Amino acid sequence: MTFHVYNTLTRQKEEFRTLEPGVVRMYNCGPTVYGRAHIGNLRSFLFADTLRRWLEYQGFAVKQVMNITDVGHILADADEGEDKIEAQARKENKDPWAISRGWTELFHKDLAALGFRKAAANPKASEHIPEMLEIIEGLLQKGYAYQTGGDVYFEVSKFARYGRLSGNKVEELDAGNRIEVREEKRHPADFALWKSDKQHLMKWTSRFGPDGYPGWHIECSAMSRKHLGDQIDIHTGGEDNIFPHHECEIAQTEAFTGRAFASYWVHSKFLQVDGGKMSKSLGNVYNLDDVLARGFQPRQLRYCLIRGHYRAPLNFTWEILKESAAALENLDDLVVRLRKAARGEGASPSADDGLEAVGEAKQEFEAALDDDLNVPRALAELFKLRTLVLEGQLGQSAAAAALQFVKKSNEVFGVMQTEEELIGDDVQRLIDERQAARKRKDFKESDRIRDYLLAQGIVLEDTPSGVSWKKKG
Question: Domain 4-268 in CATH: superfamily?
Answer without folding.
Answer: HUPs (3.40.50.620)
